[in-house]
Amino acid sequence: MANQVNTVRGQVSADQLGKTMIHEHFQFGYPGFHGDITLGRYDRQEALRVGLEVAERLKAHGVQSVVDPTPNECGRDPLLLKEISEMSGLNIICATGYYYEGESATAYWKFRALLGDAESEIYEMYMKEITEGIGDTGIRAGVIKLASSKDVITDYEKMFFRAAARAQRDTGVTIVTHTQEGTMGPEQAELLISHGADPNRIVIGHMCGNTDVAYHLRTLDTGVSIGFDRFGLQGLAGTPLDRMRETVLIGLIGMGYADRILLSHDTVNCWLGRALAIPEPLLPTVVDWHPTHIFENVIPTLREAGISEETIHKILVDNPQRVFGA
Ligand SMILES: [Zn+2]
User: Which residues pair with residue 7 across a beta bridge?
Assistant: First the structure.
């Protein structure tokens, strides 16, 4: 029997998830946005409206499920996700976890680590949120979100990785990660696996931030799956161009890795805090950064490269279902 996956509306059998986006944020805020509420007032109705619009656009391309790996301290709101899910029919899987040290709300756990065993406390948080629910919502996290820094997994971040491996051993929960600027993919995989995590339930994220084939092969050799999950984000925050990503992706598919690659955009559909104005010169870096870019532009490129419908189906449907235990 297929594994049961926690979605914000309850459990869904992994083999029923269908076409799945592994990494999209319905809303996201950099820690600190809470302090700017006077000018960055939260408009929940607007977040809901945008979320429903995104859900409809995704459904028009046959998407049935979305993983929203927003970290706990970056504006995760399971009740909003549940409302979007109930109104749209889209399955949404939310996360438990914290962001990488440079962009995380570190003070809380650093203080607790001074006074006691923060790693065990993080494990307890994961377990409670996976098995019972987030806060008093009764909504259970369906993935653990992990993240590391550029060129290093810091001691702060390692607490979360070790606790996640332990929670994964206990629950079988899927782990989805953030790598920074195309670094530490193999190291993340090795750290988790060395602490007993199951590579079949690990997706090393933002791997498309690195166009070095050797880096991808080193990561894939550990048995994990990898996310080409920032399509459309080109040149901003250390990201490569899509045609570079596509070149590596087509190469890896050609080398027989089609069963361990997942696609997504890492879009942020609603920024928390004050409205963002992207400066004119940066517009080309985000013009394709929207939730249906893969279907409109990337999949056609794969087809032109001779990649079969069967393989495309495998990447969009079978691979996500498998990392959730189908
Ligand atoms: Zn993300």
Answer: 10
- The environment of the single-atom ion ligand 1, i.e. residues with CB closer than 5 A, is 266
pTM score > 0.90 for this model?
Answer: yes
pLDDT at position 111 is: 98
Q: First vs last Cα of the chain: how many Å apart?
A: 8
* 3-state DSSP of 7-59: ECCEEEEHHHCCEEECCCECCECCCCHHHHCCCCCCCHHHHHHHHHHHHHHHH
Quote the mean pLDDT of the chain: 97
Q: What is the Å distance from ligand 1's center to 90 Cα?
A: 19
Block residue for tokens 């409109």: 296
- Cα 260 to ligand 1 centroid, rounded to whole Å: 19
Buried b (16+ CB within 10 A) or exposed e, 57-89: ebeeeebbbbbbbbbbbbbbbbebbbbbbeebe
Ramachandran angles phi, psi of 175, nearest 5°:
-110, 130
- The pLDDT of 164-191, averaged and rounded, is 98
* C-beta of residue 20 within 8 angstroms of C-beta of residue 7: no
CA of 24 to the centre of ligand 1 (A): 6
By percentage, how much of the chain surpasses pLDDT 90? 97
Q: Which tens digits make up the pLDDT trace of 6-64?
A: 999 999 999 999 999 999 999 999 999 999 999 999 999 999 999 999 999 999 999 99
Other beta carbons within 10 angstroms of residue 1's beta carbon come to: 7
Q: Quick one: tokens of 283?
A: 């517009």
Name the nearest CA neighbour of 264 among 82, 32, 18, 20. Answer: 20
Q: How far is the CA of 178 from the centre of ligand 1 (A)?
A: 7
Cα–Cα distances in Å, from 121 out to 40, 76, 190, 210, 307? 32, 19, 23, 33, 46
Residues in the chain: 326
Tell me the CA–centroid distance for residue 144 and ligand 1, in Å: 13
Name the pLDDT band for 256 (thresholds 50, 70, 90).
Answer: very high
